[in-house]
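Ops channel
N.P.: pipeline sanity check, posting one input/output pair.
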């Protein structure tokens, strides 16, 4: 048994890793993840900006509220569930305004031939709690993409300066933390001879 002792010691030393190795890897991951997250946020922002420039706004009435639970498996194999909050909205597609006209305060006109339809929209929990059945709200959609419908409050919030500044500050903080971790642990991992 004693003849294996040196081999076990070598194996233990190899498993430990070198000083600064973990911090260096974490720093590099943070430096890469921050710009990727900001790029994804920017792509979502462009979609919302297109919705604001090309979108049509209409008044809607909340007809029904529902919450459904969706099960999924996380990356560690554990079963989890999340709640999806849905609003069933009734709106008239012939009584629409451009987003710019609506933002300027132009009133909705009652159409001669109403075309009332209903649709379901997924919303966040805060919007779900704020709107009750029978409440009036406004929705915006791209005329060529019916599935793009969102609450106008949600679009305005997600395109606001205050919302986006937190993303940029968080990305900058993560990048700087990664840069500091990389610099400190680079010196530990590769000491000068």
């Amino acid at each position: 048994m004693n003849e294996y002792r040196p081999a076990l010691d070598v194996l233990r030393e190899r498993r430990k890793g070198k000083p600064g190795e973990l911090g260096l890897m974490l720093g590099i991951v943070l430096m890469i993840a921050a710009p990727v997250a900001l790029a994804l946020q920017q792509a979502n922002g462009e979609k919302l900006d297109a919705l604001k420039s090309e979108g049509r706004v209409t008044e809607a009435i909340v007809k029904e509220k529902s919450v459904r639970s969706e099960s999924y498996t996380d990356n560690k194999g554990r079963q989890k569930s999340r709640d999806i909050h849905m609003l069933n909205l009734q709106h008239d597609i012939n009584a629409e305004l451009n987003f710019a006209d609506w933002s300027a305060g132009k009133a909705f006109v009652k159409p001669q031939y109403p075309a009332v339809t209903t649709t379901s929209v997924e919303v966040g929990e805060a919007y779900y709690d704020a709107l009750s059945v029978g409440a009036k709200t406004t929705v915006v959609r791209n005329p060529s993409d019916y599935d793009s419908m969102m609450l106008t409050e949600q679009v305005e919030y997600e395109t606001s300066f205050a919302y986006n500044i937190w993303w940029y500050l968080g990305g900058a903080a993560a990048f700087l933390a990664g840069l500091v971790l990389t610099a400190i642990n680079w010196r530990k991992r590769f000491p000068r001879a």
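N.P.: looks fine end to end. The mean pLDDT is 88.
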